[in-house]
Amino acid sequence: MQLGEFPAAIQTGERALALAPDNANEFDILARAYKRASQFGKAKAVVSQAVARGKDYVRLHDTLNEIAWAENDQPAMAREAQWADQKGTWFSFDLEGCIAADGGQLDRAEGYFEKAISTAERDHLNTTADEVRLDQAEAEILLGQLDRARTTLQRIAREDSDSAEFVLLNIKLGQLAPAEAFLKAHPTIESQPSDPLTYLNLPRIRAALALAHNRPLDAIAALDGVQQYDLSDSGLNAMSLRGKAYLLAHQPDQAAAQYKKILQNPGLPVTAELSLAHLGLAEAEEMRGNLPAADKEYSAFLARWTGADPHNVVVATAKTDLDALRRNEEEARR
Question: What is the pLDDT of residues 161-212, one digit of tens each?
Fold first, then answer.
């Protein structure tokens, strides 16, 4: 499942549940496999089976919450948020933070991230607390609050900073030294810290560095050959990097394909990068001269972020870009 191999994940998950039908963990894993494969009806059916057998517990509700978010089922999201507030774990609070961020609600997200961090630290899960801070910093960067993100990353313990995600976030902040140190310490896959997604770490870091140096073709080359992991836990980030590189290289057809792939897989992990894919696709369509399609994507993004924080810089920029696009459409009609 982490590698994005969903047919195999589902097959083995069903077998595991058949062998251990009273094990709540097997329901959870199979439901998440269906969810990641964007087979939401089957995921919800597995959760219903678990509840019917008296195996109702937090992680199943986390999966239901992710599905409700993907389906934009506001009543279900409200129910699951209430469940998280009453019985949630650090993961539930972290998930609520990511969901809020994907709606442009950074202030609400920050409250949930802090809940997740304090819950993890209460249980002496300090490394886990730092993982939440990485999610928090990513949300802050994607929503345009770079100073907040710098402060958040400074709170991460030094021993937890040797990670690909920490390095990638620093690159987005213009701080390249951590990436250069990481590549020097881990020049090959085998030299990296243990991680199921090792295959993607070096290509993503090299691509992000190339983009920071305005070398989009090098970024595209760095990510070549890892497309089989596009639906993995870190694959969304790889597709986003690839889409941005294609845009900078003025290859809109290839860029559009990347953003469409993101949007066609709503079972991917919750992050604001999913909503922002609408903006990437809008830029690609505009570059292709398909102004109505670009208009559609800008509008889809703004509809998704109708509840965003006031004065959200991403929303303001999107509205400005959409207004300019519509002026161009009007002139083209004349």
Answer: 778 899 999 999 999 999 998 888 887 666 555 565 678 889 999 999 999 9
21-29 long-range contacts, CB within 8 A, separation 24+: 21/53, 22/53, 22/55, 24/50, 24/55, 24/57, 24/60, 27/53, 27/55, 27/60, 28/57, 28/59, 28/60, 28/63, 29/1
Domain ranges of the chain: 1-84, 89-144, 210-334
Which fold would CATH assign to domain 210-334? 1.25.40
Sign for the pseudo-dihedral over CA of 264, 266, 268, 269:
positive
CA distance 271 to 94: 11
What six digits make up the tokens of 323?
A: 């207004």
C-alpha–C-alpha distance, residues 140 and 149, integer Å? 5
Examine domains 1-84 and 210-334 and report if their fold is the same.
yes
Closest to 44 in 3D by CA, of 26, 25, 65: 65
What is the chain's alpha carbon radius of gyration, rounded to the nearest angstrom?
20
| CATH architecture of the domain with range 1-84 | Alpha Horseshoe (1.25)
Q: What are phi and psi of 87, to 5 degrees?
A: -130, 5
Number of H helices, E strands in the chain: 18, 0
Quote the CA–CA distance of 48 and 27 in Å, as a whole number: 10
Give me the residue label for tokens 């559609």.
296
**What is the reported pLDDT for 186?**
81
